[in-house]
C-alpha cells in the first residue's frame, strides 16, 4: 500500500493518485507470481519494510514513528509487510546487508537508506531528504 497521502487523495473515484498495480494480476501493489513464487514489485520509490506480526513493543514503536514522520512530511512511501512472505523478509535483509536485520528498514529503489536509528539521526540533523535519497 502506498502511504503518505490521505484516503481522499488516493481514491480513484475522486481523481486522486493511485498506486501502480502488480504486473501479474493488476489488482495489488504486491503480488506473488505464479511462475516465480516471489514478489513482483516495482523497485522504484521509497519502501519501508515493516511487520504487522511482532511481540516487540520496540519494533512496533519504531515502525509507528517512521510512518508518522513520513506521513507528517507528506513523503510518499510503500509499506512492505514482511510477515506476509518469507521472501520479503529475505529481500529486506539482503538489501540491508545484514542477515539478522529487523524492521523497520528503509529503501529507495534498489538503494538501502538505513534502519530506524539512522532515520532518527537524519530527522534530528535535518538531513532526511538526503538520507531517503530524495535530494
TrEMBL record:
Q: Which UniProt keywords apply?
A: Acetylation, Cell membrane, Cell projection, Cytoplasm, Glycoprotein, Membrane, Nucleus
Cited SUPFAM superfamilies? Thioredoxin-like
Q: Which GO terms describe its cellular component?
A: cytosol; nucleus; ruffle membrane
Cross-referenced PROSITE patterns, in alphabetical order?
Answer: GLUTAREDOXIN_2
| Principal localisation | membrane
Its localization reads: Cell projection, Ruffle membrane; Cytoplasm, Cytosol; Nucleus
Membership in a protein family? Belongs to the SH3BGR family.
What is the annotated role of this protein in its UniProt record? Could act as a modulator of glutaredoxin biological activity. May play a role in cytoskeleton organization.
The protein depicted here goes by the name SH3 domain-binding glutamic acid-rich-like protein 3
What organism is the protein native to?
A: Physeter macrocephalus
Amino acid at each position: 500500500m502506498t502511504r503518505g497521502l490521505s484516503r481522499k487523495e488516493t481514491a480513484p473515484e475522486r481523481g486522486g493518485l493511485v498506486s501502480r498495480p502488480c504486473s501479474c494480476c493488476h489488482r495489488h501493489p504486491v503480488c506473488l507470481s505464479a511462475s516465480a513464487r516471489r514478489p513482483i514489485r516495482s523497485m522504484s520509490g521509497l519502501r519501508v519494510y515493516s511487520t504487522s506480526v511482532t511481540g516487540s513493543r520496540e519494533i512496533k514503536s519504531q515502525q509507528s514513528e517512521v510512518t508518522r514522520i513520513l506521513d507528517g512530511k507528506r513523503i510518499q512511501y510503500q509499506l512492505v509487510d514482511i510477515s506476509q512472505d518469507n521472501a520479503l523478509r529475505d529481500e529486506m535483509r539482503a538489501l540491508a546487508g545484514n542477515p539478522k536485520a529487523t524492521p523497520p528498514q528503509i529503501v529507495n529503489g534498489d538503494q538501502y537508506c538505513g534502519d530506524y536509528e539512522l532515520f532518527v539521526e537524519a530527522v534530528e540533523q535535518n538531513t532526511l531528504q538526503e538520507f531517503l535519497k530524495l535530494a
